[in-house]
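Morning!

This is the sequence you dropped in the shared folder:
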Amino acid sequence: MDKLSPKLFDHTILKADAKEEDVVRVCREAAEYGFASVCVNGFYTAFAAGLLEGTSVKVCTVAGFPLGMSATRVKAYEARCAIEDGAAEIDMVINVGALKDKKDDVVREDIAAVKEVCDGKALLKVIIETCLLNDEEKERACRLAVEAGADFVKTSTGFSTGGARAEDVALMKRTVGGRAKVKASGGIRSAADAHAMVEAGADRLGTSATVAIINGE
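The structure's back. Tokens below.
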């Protein structure tokens, strides 16, 4: 297998019991290996930004995470606070229930509100939570995200009933058709997993096993 670029990875620490020392470790690893970003919950955004100042590693912060059922104005406020605290990338979760109810305008406007906050300040990645969707819903979620201006569509939070699957990455890649990039996240724990996602079309990978993967373990 070819060696994977460190810039493919968002080095992730989103567990509720993450301590300050854990965030320090993850940020140090990201700086050492040159990962694209460190992905943290909002509480740690400013802390991570301080640790990563002067490096090439970006801070990525989640919004509406992990359920996606926050009010739109709450997601937008989370994104605004994160950007003020130093985030350069925002990973938001869509309103899955609204998508399933075919309330496409609600889903599109939810994403667009966060995009308005991010525009010119941060990349927006939209988590569609593929494990809860059928193929038609996955395609529709991707189209709505693109229409709302998303920079990436993302498979999963890693906190629901399943994670990234290569077949979902391929479906998402076909659906966005170059209008957005694709991030695979959730359950990527080995170099083989990572290669499978890249081969399926992933442009970015989110995982907490980043160091092991980059070392070919």
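Headline: The chain has a mean pLDDT of 97.

More detail when I'm at my desk.
O.
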